[in-house]
Design brief:
This protein is an alpha/beta fold. It contains ten helices and 13 strands.
Length: 270
């Protein structure tokens, strides 16, 4: 009888190798390099529309925003097209890990917990905290002007604003909201609370959306959070390429993009 050249141990070794290869593919171990993206002709960007003005859906159903302009610049530098894939926020990191896309562009803060799962580009934005104010407090000069007994300040339970308010405010009453941020903003507009704390883009956009009776105070820097582009852990070469584009944007057209999306906001009518 002619035996297998592998034998039982050899066959087990081969099967183990095949299984390992399948696991590596499933885990995203063969994530794309810049060269592979160029050969493919497109870079796939994962995002979760709804975070104004980073990513949102316009009246034509297209996804636009500050992040999408960043993604387009990366695609241009690689000489490829950009494909946008909309996905729920809680599934966006798993989608990157399993290679449903090449990058996450979602106004994502760089945190230690997220860095255990994915790579991040160099920060391309710093999202600090701002105050959404009722008309009564529109002329304040400092956050300290709001730390007064009788003043009610809204925060979103479990978010950065919640934790920060506990250490900063000693006299004002902190009101914690468990529902969406729109409810918190409405409470300011209705006079139920005097101010709300949230990230500066949200504050600026909400004032733009509701010009009567709501005011923004973003002049002081409070708890700035670095925002980066998510990249598969197995794509260090792609990170280098993305970092190069981020650096170029910051040195050339960052001010122009910021003015368009966060200050003048001509996109708002869309």
């Amino acid at each position: 009888m002619t035996g297998s050249i592998f034998g039982k141990r050899g066959m087990l070794f081969v099967l183990s190798g095949i299984l390992m290869a399948l696991l590596l593919v499933a885990s995203g171990a063969f994530a794309a390099t810049p060269e592979e993206i160029k050969a493919r002709g497109k870079i796939v960007v994962l995002t979760a529309p709804g975070y104004f003005p980073f990513e949102m859906i316009d009246e034509n159903g297209d996804i636009i925003g500050f992040d999408m302009d960043i993604g387009k610049a990366i695609a241009d530098d690689l000489g490829v097209k950009m494909e946008i894939v909309s996905i729920t926020w809680d599934g966006i990191i798993p989608a990157l890990e399993t290679e449903k896309g090449d990058l996450i562009l979602g106004g994502m803060a760089i945190t230690e917990e997220r860095q255990k799962k994915i790579l991040f580009s160099e920060p391309y934005f710093y999202a600090g905290l701002g105050l959404l104010l009722s008309e009564k407090y529109k002329d304040i000069k400092s956050w300290k002007d709001m730390d007064v007994k009788g003043v009610k300040i809204g925060v979103r339970l479990g978010q950065t604003s919640d934790f920060y308010s506990e250490t900063f405010f000693k006299n004002a009453e902190i009101v914690k909201f468990t529902n969406d941020t729109a409810t918190m903003a409405m409470a300011v507009a209705d006079g139920k609370i005097d101010a709300a704390i949230h990230n500066t883009p949200w504050v600026l956009v909400y004032v733009k959306k509701n010009p009567k009776g709501l005011f923004a105070f973003v002049d002081e820097k409070h708890y700035e959070m670095p925002v980066g582009i998510g990249i598969n852990q197995n794509s260090p070469e792609l990170k280098k390429a993305v970092d190069a584009t981020v650096k170029k944007i910051r040195e050339t057209k960052y001010d122009e993009l910021y003015k368009y999306w966060f200050v003048d906001m001509p996109w708002f009518k869309e």
